[in-house]
Design brief:
Elements (H helix, E strand, L loop, with lengths): L1 H26 L23 E3 L5 E5 L1 H4 L3 E4 L5 E2 L5 E2 L2 E2 L8 E4 L18 E2 L21 E4 L5 E2 L12 E4 L6 E2 L12 E3 L6 E2 L12 E3 L6 E2 L11 E3 L8 E2 L13 E4 L4 H4 L1 H5 L6 E3 L2
Parallel strand pairs: 2-4, 3-7, 7-8, 8-9, 9-11, 10-12, 12-14, 13-15, 14-16, 15-17, 16-18, 17-19, 19-20
Antiparallel strand pairs: 1-2, 5-6
Length: about 290
């Protein structure tokens, strides 16, 4: 009888201690899902200590040693612009010296990007909503970049801004602010498979999407006025959608030269400007024209 009671007391004590241990584990931050110090994607918080700053200014010039070890970074609200490059670690040029794959911004205010991310190994970049400018060659040859957004405040995408971003798969245009895509802006974006432009877009420059060798689907904007020479040359477009209201003012008729799509279909509205000027405007044989309801 005494032995039975003793065993019961021992069992209860063990259970209580075990429960206390579980509670303690959760409270001290070592429980499931609480770790943030390993720099894992999805856990980032803005920290000025992860960056180097221009003396007495709010300009980021590179990464600190601790920042370079993170997988995901958030640009602090303090930042007003950039100098240098993402490849600069504590002032040293180290193109292979950082682990960062994703960057976003704490604030939506406008900043001067100043080519800071050009040629970087970033995979994902979420630009601030208030951004107004993407300059020439801004992100050129960033061969690991897979995702980027174009904020509504950006009216012009500069020449060769994303040229050679061979891994770019997802290009998101936010709102209806974009007016012009300059020459070669997305040339050799070999992983891009589809593009739907905002209706505000009026100009697509020469060679803008040339050699985008995976590009299969394009929806042109209704307000497009200028379609530059060879702008979609050497793509594999299979579906080209032309809005009923589109009326080009300037085109050389060779924007879609050398398409390699297996079964090209160009969707137009019967009697529309695109229908009546089909071959002259797009340089595509009218046999590929498909009328939409």
């Amino acid at each position: 009888m005494k032995l039975s009671k003793l065993m019961s007391i021992t069992l209860i004590t063990g259970l209580v201690l075990g429960m206390a241990g579980c509670v303690s584990s959760g409270e001290d931050g070592k429980g499931s899902g609480s770790g943030t110090e390993d720099g894992g994607v999805g856990s980032a918080k803005a920290s000025e200590e992860y960056f180097t700053w221009k003396a007495n200014e709010n300009i980021i010039t590179g990464l600190s040693e601790s920042g370079a070890k993170q997988k995901e970074l958030v640009i602090p609200e303090r930042c007003e612009g950039f100098e240098g490059a993402l490849d600069f670690i504590d002032g040293r040029y180290e193109p292979e010296g950082y682990s960062v794959v994703s960057i976003s911004f704490e604030s939506d205010k406008d900043v001067d990007l100043n080519g800071f991310f050009k040629g970087s190994r970033l995979q994902r970049l979420e630009l601030p909503g208030g951004l107004t400018s993407i300059e020439d060659r801004e992100f050129g040859t960033s061969q690991s970049l897979e995702y980027i957004n174009i904020p509504e405040g950006v009216t012009v995408i500069g020449e060769a801004a994303f040229s050679g971003c061979t891994a770019l798969e997802e290009l998101v245009f936010e709102g209806d602010g974009l007016v012009e895509i300059k020459d070669s802006a997305f040339e050799i974006c070999e992983s891009l498979s589809s593009v739907e432009f905002p209706d505000s877009l009026e100009i697509i420059g020469e060679d803008a999407f040339e050699n985008c060798s995976s590009l299969k689907s394009v929806i042109l904007p209704e307000n497009l006025k200028t379609l530059g020479a060879y702008s979609f040359m050497n793509t594999v477009i299979e579906e080209l959608t032309v809005p009923e209201g589109l009326e080009l003012e300037s085109t050389t008729g060779d924007a879609f030269t050398n398409l390699g799509g297996a079964d090209l279909k160009v969707y137009v509205t019967a009697g529309s400007w695109a229908d009546l000027n089909f071959e002259e405007a797009f340089g595509i044989n009218s046999d590929y024209r498909v009328y939409t309801p």
